[in-house]
Amino acid sequence: MARVGLTAERLTRAGAELADEVGFDQVTVSALARRFDVKVASLYSHVRNSQDLKTRIALLALAEMADRAADALAGRSGKEALAALANVYRDYAREHPGRYAAAQLRLDPQTAAASAGVRHARMTRALLRGYDLTEPDQTHAVRLLGSVFHGYVSLELGGGFSHSAPDTDETWVRVIDALDTLLRNWPPPPTETQG
Q1: H or E element in which residue 21 lies
Q2: What is the tens place of the pLDDT at every residue in 33-57?
Q3: Alpha-carbon gap, residue 129 to 185, rounded angstroms
Q4: Average pLDDT in the 133-143 region?
Q5: Which DSSP letter does residue 2 get?
Q6: In what residue span(s) does the HTH tetR-type domain sit (predicted)?
Q7: Rounded to whole angstroms, how far apart are CA atoms 191 and 194?
Q8: Contacts (Cβ under 8 Å, ≥6 apart) of 149
Q9: What is the mean pLDDT of residues 75-101?
């Protein structure tokens, strides 16, 4: 019998909160059962296992970030849109480090195709059209932006910049400036002799 008040959505949200508190890697069905002071078995009518719970948290995080990105990008283009999108990722990671880590979870292709990750890709590609990038350069630029945003945020969250000047906010602004310059001056494809 399912415990009154427990639903898959409530467990997912509680799991996301737990991830922010103790780290995404520490989230398990057992840890969640302790949080609700229930037996582990009582949660299995709502989530299949810890991997299912983690997938649900990842989908929640992707949806939350996509909603934030859509709001931030509305009415913006060019460098202003680029900064808005970058700040969504950085701010979300700072506010919700466990959920941000969850958003990096590798999803199976079917789940990924139905997730808010598709919205992220569409928004990023729309931003890049403002820089007159077409395929395959759009795909290269999507990968570049994702790598830079995630790399910077991960290093910052891990304390990688905490012992040096200048301030990380100043560096972040310079990173966005550099990305904007690169996107406005996207290099041509390499020739056979360059590669």
Answers
A1: helix 8-22
A2: 999 999 998 899 899 999 999 999 9
A3: 13
A4: 94
A5: P
A6: 5-65
A7: 5
A8: 86, 89, 90
A9: 97
**Alpha-carbon gap, residue 115 to 127, rounded angstroms:** 20
Domain residue ranges of the chain, discontinuous segments joined by +: 8-184
Distance in angstroms (rounded) separating the CA atoms of residues 57 and 122: 21
- Residue 33 CB neighbour total at 10 angstroms: 17
- Which CATH number applies to 8-184? 1.10.357.10
Asked if 72 contacts 85 with a C-beta cutoff of 8 angstroms, the reply is yes
Which two three-digit tokens encode residue 54? Answer: 């983690």
If pLDDT is split at 50, 70 and 90, which confidence band does 193 have?
A: low
Strand, helix or coil at 162? Answer: coil
pLDDT at site 179: 98
Judged on CB neighbours under 10 Å (0-12, 13-18, 19+), 149 is: buried
Largest Cα–Cα distance in the chain? Answer: 68
- Nearest-Å Rg of the Cα atoms of the chain is 19
